[in-house]
């Protein structure tokens, strides 16, 4: 596709349920990032994948959060046992590291609401 | 720890006036700085990326400057239009490739 795509665009879930959020990066981009945007915390980094290297998970807020990237392309962010404070917009970005200063391109986001 | 600040948090100007948006960061050891635009309920659109070795970048009515030593960047939007109304975010990239964002400046251009 022409840009980064994410699905679903909106997700409403009940507290305690697990959710999966999907990201399709720009074709050929080697790096993929997840960020979270919430009212109280602004935009914050969650996790970063680069090629076949071990991901940088330093931004994940708890062990309920995990992510994987299959085949160096599509990524899934999983939140287990969701809590109300997980409500936020989850944004995915991709870039071609090493080219033109690593400009990151963002998807439209998934708005997660935990009731 | 890198901290990024954007002042003002909100800005309202009449159409045609030039916009000046400020961004400051605490750690000058950055690889690049990126300016984004975000419309309500939407994702981020990349506007300009300035590499650490550069002083400015221009795209159409947009011009962004970078003074790495003083930890500052300014985004200028010339001859503002109502369609420029949005939230503008700056972000810096340091070691590790992840972006650290400012809180954004919400801009309203009145017709």
List keywords for this structure.
heterodimer, A: 115 residues, 0% helix, 48% strand, globular, B: mainly beta, six-stranded mixed sheet
By helix and strand content of chain B, what is the structural category?
Answer: mainly beta
**Mean pLDDT rating of chain A:** 91
β content of chain A, as a range? over 45%
H-E order of chain A: EEEEEEEEEE
Q: Tell me the Rg of chain B in angstroms.
A: 13 Å
Beta strands of chain A, count: 10
User: How much helix, percentage-wise, in residues of chain A?
Assistant: under 10%
Compute the separation of the termini of chain B in Å. Answer: 41 Å
> Could you say which overall geometry of chain A the principal axes of the C-alpha atoms support?
globular
Biggest beta sheet attributes of chain A: 6 strands, mixed
Given helix and strand content, the structural type of chain A is mainly beta
Largest sheet of chain B: 6 strands, mixed
Model regions low in confidence, pLDDT < 50 over at least 5 residues of chain B = none
Annotation, overall tally of beta strands of chain B: 11
Report strand % of chain B. over 45%
Number of helices of chain A: 0
Biggest interface and its residues per chain? A-B, 28 and 25 residues
For the record, give the distance between the C-alpha atoms at the N and C termini of chain A, rounded to a whole number: 33 Å
């Amino acid at each position: 596709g022409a840009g980064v795509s994410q699905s679903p665009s909106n997700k409403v879930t009940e507290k305690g349920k697990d959710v999966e959020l999907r990201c399709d990066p720009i074709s050929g981009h080697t790096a993929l990032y997840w960020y979270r945007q919430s009212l109280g915390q602004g935009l914050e980094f969650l996790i970063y994948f680069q090629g076949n290297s071990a991901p940088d998970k330093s931004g994940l807020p708890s062990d309920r959060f995990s992510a994987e990237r299959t085949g160096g392309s599509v990524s899934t962010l999983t939140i287990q046992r969701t809590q109300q404070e997980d409500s936020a917009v989850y944004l995915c970005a991709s870039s071609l590291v090493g080219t033109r200063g690593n400009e990151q391109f963002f998807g439209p986001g998934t708005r997660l609401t935990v009731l | 720890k890198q901290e990024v600040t954007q002042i003002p948090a909100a800005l309202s100007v009449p159409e045609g006036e030039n916009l000046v948006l400020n961004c400051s960061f605490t750690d000058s050891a950055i690889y690049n700085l990126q300016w984004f635009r975000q419309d309500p309920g939407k994702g981020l659109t990349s506007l300009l990326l300035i590499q650490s070795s550069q002083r400015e970048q221009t795209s159409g009515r947009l011009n962004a400057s970078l003074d790495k030593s003083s930890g500052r960047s300014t985004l200028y939007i010339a001859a503002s239009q109502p369609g420029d109304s949005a939230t503008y975010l700056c972000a810096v990239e340091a070691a590790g490739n992840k972006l650290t964002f400012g809180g954004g400046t919400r801009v309203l251009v009145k017709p």
